[in-house]
Amino acid sequence: MTSHVKNTLVTTAAIAGALAATTLFNTTTVKADTTSSAPVTTTTSATKDTAIASAQAKVNSASAAVVSAQAAYGSASTAASDAAAKTAAASASAAATSSAVANAQAAADAAATAKSTADANLAKAQATAAETSRAQSVTSAAVVSAQSAVASASAKASDADSAVASAEAGQTVTANLMRSDDPTKQSAAAGFFAKQVTIKQDGSDYLITLTLSSGNGFIKSMTLNGEQPTTTTANGDTGTYTYKVSAAVLAKGSATLAFALQTPMGAMNQTALLDIDTTIFNGLLADKSDADAALTSAQAALSTAKTKAAKVAQVASSAASAATAAATVASDAAVVATSAATNLTSAQAANSTAQAALTSAQAAQSAADATLATAKSNLDSANAALTSAQAELKSAQNIVVVTPASSASSSASSATSSATNSASSAASSASSTDSSAASSASSTASSAGSAASSATNSAASAATATSNVASSALTTTVTSAVVATPATTKKATSSTPASSTTAKTLPQTGNENQSALVALGLAILTLGIYPMMKRKHA
């Protein structure tokens, strides 16, 4: 069996099953004695059967359309629900990645700021370290220079001290006695004095010792610049006289020597100028003072230089340590900034992916919503069509049929023929549906199969009843109107003319033709399903 034939049989079975189900479960039983306010039309049985068959076909077609529309609506609803769930998940993911991007951006900005600050601090620390290093070099050189100055000043002070010490020990210098009234001429007393005098430093003053080589006995007293000698010695005609003079007198190089004499010629007083070569002593104390001051200054400068150098060295050491620490901080900040930038890039990529997924999900949801709206509209239209077909069927069922006794058999035959034509029309219509309708029909057939199976006995009875009606209704007449009532049925009443004593009276339900349709549907269903089941179990 080809696929086309299989689809045709499945479609035929579905229509037959739907026909049977609609006939069995959706058609209201009509009793002969039912009353209604609806208008009543009187016509022939064949016309009514044709109207019912046509209306029933419309109901069947509309029912199939409703089933198909309901399936499409259910599928669209599921798809829309799935799309909404996916959109919600994508939205949550996009929100999470957006938040992650914001956090990563904040972290990257903070890391970049920290790195910038660390780099600036490093540059400043390095500049400070370089400056303090140069200052340390300068102060170290100053210390060396100060040490050299101290060494030089110390040497000069030592020389000055040596000179003063030598002077303090006493030195012999040349001395001349010159006439006080004419310093260019030698005094007559010069012959009595030695040509050398001894000069010795005494604190800030000097001691000058004069030696008399002869004539000491003639001298009663002798002063130098009016000052008496500090000490004298006498040894016969010789003797020594020591005088204390200031550094100024010594620097001048001359002093007045006055004699009080007692000579054989009598007492007399004489003066002379003592001319001393004191150049050896000139500036000794001043040099020593200057040397000492220079040494003190050099030592002070050295101390200051050392103190400054120590401070600068400490600052330089701290600056170097700070530069090292700043370099470590800058390195760590660079690592953090790089990591934060990488995290930001990853977060941005993830967010881009999430945003794209959200856009796609939203588009899919929009499409699913549009499909759902279309399916809802189609379902509403199908339901409206079914309602209209059902109303038409009820109207057809409400037709009152007056059947002459002679035409009862032909009416039953006509009903069967009409039902067959309606089923054929429904099958033809179903066979022209598209693939989606075939799928819906297949589902309907599956459902209708169970209904048909459970209603087999009822359908068989209905078929038998239809046959009996056709054979025994020759003398039957209907005296009351037939009206379709969905909720209420009453016992049918009939009247038989008095002259027809042998005729049978049958209840008129208005469903005789429906019973024929049930039988036809079941037959078609059997023809469609049984070969398939046989092939399945073969």
* H/E topology pattern: HEHEEEEEEHEEHEHHHH
Residue fraction in strands: 5-15%
- The overall strand count is 10
Helix content: 55-70%
Low-confidence stretches: 1-38, 406-516
* Shape descriptor: rod-shaped
Q: Count of DSSP helices?
A: 8
Q: Output mean pLDDT.
A: 75
As laid out across the biggest beta sheet, the strand order is: 5-8-9-2-3-4-7-6
Which value, in Å, is the CA radius of gyration?
Answer: 75 Å
Quickly give the structural class.
alpha+beta
Biggest β-sheet strands, sense, barrel:
8 strands, antiparallel
Amino- and carboxy-terminal Cα gap: 14 Å
Structure description:
This protein is α+β, with helices and mostly antiparallel strands. Among the domains are: 1-41 and 399-418 and 462-538, no CATH class; 160-287, Immunoglobulin-like, CATH 2.60.40. The chain is built from eight helices and ten strands. The protein has helices at 3-26, 45-169, 247-252, 284-397, 408-431, 435-454, 456-472, 512-537, and strands spanning 42-43, 171-179, 196-202, 205-212, 219-224, 231-235, 238-245, 254-263, 266-276, 400-401. The strands form two sheets. The protein has an eight-stranded antiparallel sheet with strand order 5-8-9-2-3-4-7-6. It has a two-stranded parallel ribbon with strand order 1-10. A hairpin with a 2-residue loop joins strand 6 (231-235) and strand 7. Helix 1 (3-26) crosses helix 2 (45-169), helix 2 packs across helix 6 and helix 5 crosses helix 8. The longest helix is centred in the N-terminal third of the chain and has 125 residues, at 45-169. The two termini are 14 Å apart. The model is unreliable at 1-38 and 406-516 (pLDDT under 50).
